[in-house]
Structure formats: structure tokens, C-alpha cells
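Note to self: keep these together.
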Amino acid sequence: MEKTREQIMKMLQKYKVIAILRRIPMNCFLETADAVYRGGIRLMEVPFDQSGELSAFTTKEQIQSLTMRYPDAAVGAGTVLYKEQVDMAREGGASYIISPNTDKEIIAYTRKCGLISIPGALTPTEMQNAYSWGADYVKLFPAGTFGIEYLKDIMAPLRHIKFLAVGRINAENIGDFLKAGCTGAGVGSCLLDENMIRDGRYNELEELAGQYAAYAQSDGEDGI
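Structure:
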């Protein structure tokens, strides 16, 4: 059964960690997702590949496979730059739309489609614009590059905005971003280790996902 916007937002609040399944080869995509799921992560993002090496139709199929495989998870599309990609993500069953930038038209179209809008922003002006245009959350990107002090500085006057931290988020800094007030965080290569996937070490990937999932539930108090 399709989840409501309110249900998706509650899941983001509860589970916090979004696993970013970027450019995972098709022959190991589901095994990788299974390991992440078994580890306790219930939020997944499948990004569109703007280089064209991975077709948009493949991304749609991957999103669809996850939504059908894990009915108790919430799957979103990432690196969404065009309305056509919003449409494809929705057709695949995506619940939220994540972009690296702030685009008024994409935010409005995402909301019109009934999906959760999560545009990326870096400056206070971009963040407030995103919020004013209807974003449900603002993705601070690249969060890890600018660091926790930058987040604290911008949150002081912008506490009405719900933030997700994405970009260079790892075991060392995820707790700091969560404790500072971020609703959640997107984790890519620091979780989805290329070597583990290439070598088929899915048990290790499951264990690592479990550590991130537990870490998020404790808001980083105990560490990994």
C-alpha cells in the first residue's frame, strides 16, 4: 500500500540514515540492497546518473525493484534535475525526490506530484528559498566538506528548516550532524564500500549497515 507523505516523514524522523545506492552494478544491485536492509536501514536512495552511463530507465527499474521488495522501507530518487526524472521516479514508486541543487520548478512539481521534496543547498539564501518554495527538507550539501561548525552557524537563524546532511558523511561525523539537529543523513561510499560489493562480502556490508542504523538511533551517542 502506498505510503502517505506523513508516513514517509515519520520514517525519515525515525530511521535517519539514507543509504545512497549510487551506480551499483545491476548484477549485484539487489544483493547490495538486501545487505543494507538486513542491517536495519529502511531508507534508500537511487540516484539518476546524469552522465548517461546508467540510463534513466535503469534507475527507474532499480527504484521499482526496491519498492516492491521492501514494502516497509521508503525509497527515493536522487540527483533529480528534471521534471521527467520526477515522473520516472514516481512511476517507479519513489516516495521522495532528492536533488543536489535548489530549483523552484522541481520543488513545486515534486509537491504537485505528492512526493517529499528534498533539494540541495549550501548558502542561507538557497536554504531559505528552498523552504519558501515548498521544500519539506533541505539537503545540506556538501555537509562533510564544510563541517559541523558551518551547520551550527546556519541553524542558529534557520531553525525552522529541517536539514539532512549529505556529502562526505561517515562514521566519524554522522553523530555530530545528528546531535546538532539534522533530521537525518545520506551516506554513500562510506557505507556502500566498493571493495565489499565487488568481492561479494555482503555479510560485512550488512554488519556495517547495522552499525550505521544503530548509530542513528542513538543519535551518535555511542559511536561506531
